[in-house]
Design a protein that fits this description.
Elements (H helix, E strand, L loop, with lengths): L6 E7 L8 H14 L6 E6 L9 H9 L5 E4 L9 H13 L3 E4 L10 H34 L12 H11 L6 H7 L4 H5 L10 H10 L30
Parallel strand pairs: 1-2, 1-3, 3-4
Helix pairs in contact: 5-8
Length: 242
C-alpha cells in the first residue's frame, strides 16, 4: 500500500432518493483507519444525479485539485460512475495526474496495486472493444436505412415549390426580402438559407428542389401560395388556388 501525500474522500447521494451519507462515511472511515491510521483526509460531499456528469461539481473540483501521489477514496463504484466508459474516463484523468484511486467495496479496482491496475487495464480493453462493435453496428444500420430510402436530418422548413417561388421572386429587382419573408411567415435570414440575393439556389435549396424535381431547369413559377397563419411559429402552408 502506498503512502499518499493527500487523501481525498468523495461522498455523493442521488437527488431522487431518500439517502444520507452515513453508510458511505462508515465504510470509508473504517477503511482509512485500518490502512492509514492517524492520516488526515479531505472530505467533499454533494447531492447530485449519477447520470449527469456535468452536475457533479465537487467531484470535478477534487479531480482538478489532485496532485502526484494523491489518493481519491469513494465508498462504492456507483458513487463515481454509472457505466464502464464513465469510470474509465475518470480513472484516466486521475492517472494522468499521477494520483491513485480506491473503491472501498471493490478492492480489485484499486489502482494502488499492480493487480488493480491490471483489472482496470482489462476493463479498458473490453470497453474499447465494445465501443468499436457499437460503431460498426451503427454504421451498418445507417447504410441499410439509406438503401431503403430513409432520409436523415430535420425536415425542411419549406417545400420544393415554395423554394422555387422564393428563387423566382428573388430574381426580380423590385422584390423586397422582408416582404417576401412575411409572405412565408419566416425571416429574411431563413430565406437566404435556400436562395441567394440574385435568386440562385443555395446548396441546401438545390438539394431540396432536385430531390423532388430531378430535371429542374427553369421550371415555371408555381402558383402563389395563399398565406395561411395557424400560429406565429407556423410556416405558411401550401394552399393553391384551383
Amino acid at each position: 500500500m502506498i503512502e499518499p501525500n493527500n487523501i481525498w474522500v468523495y461522498y455523493r447521494i442521488s437527488t431522487n432518493m431518500r439517502q444520507d451519507f452515513l453508510r458511505q462515511m462508515s465504510a470509508v472511515e473504517g477503511y482509512l483507519k485500518k490502512h492509514f491510521p492517524g492520516k488526515e483526509f479531505i472530505v467533499r460531499e454533494e447531492v447530485a444525479s449519477g447520470m449527469e456528469e456535468e452536475r457533479r461539481v465537487e467531484l470535478k473540483k477534487i479531480i482538478d485539485s489532485l496532485q502526484k501521489d494523491d489518493l481519491l477514496v469513494v465508498a462504492s463504484l456507483d458513487r463515481i460512475a454509472r457505466n464502464t466508459f464513465q469510470l474509465l474516463k475518470t480513472l484516466e484523468t486521475i492517472s494522468k495526474k499521477g494520483a491513485c484511486f480506491i473503491i472501498v467495496d471493490n478492492p480489485e479496482l484499486n489502482t494502488t496495486s499492480p493487480h488493480g491496475k491490471l483489472v482496470v487495464s482489462m476493463l479498458s480493453s473490453i470497453a474499447e472493444f465494445e465501443y468499436s462493435l457499437i460503431r460498426a453496428r451503427c454504421k451498418q444500420g445507417l447504410e441499410a436505412a439509406k438503401k431503403r430510402g430513409v432520409k436523415f436530418g430535420r425536415k425542411p422548413s419549406f417545400t420544393a415549390d415554395q423554394i422555387i417561388h422564393m428563387s423566382d421572386m428573388m430574381k426580380k429587382q423590385d422584390t423586397n426580402v422582408s416582404s417576401l419573408a412575411r409572405t412565408f411567415n419566416t425571416t429574411a435570414r431563413a430565406i437566404y438559407r435556400y436562395c441567394k440575393s440574385n435568386g440562385e439556389l443555395t446548396p441546401l435549396g438545390e438539394y431540396i428542389v432536385t430531390s423532388k424535381y430531378k430535371n429542374y431547369i427553369n421550371r415555371p413559377l408555381p402558383p402563389m401560395p395563399r398565406r395561411v397563419r395557424r400560429k406565429k411559429t407556423d410556416v405558411v402552408e401550401d394552399v393553391y388556388r384551383s
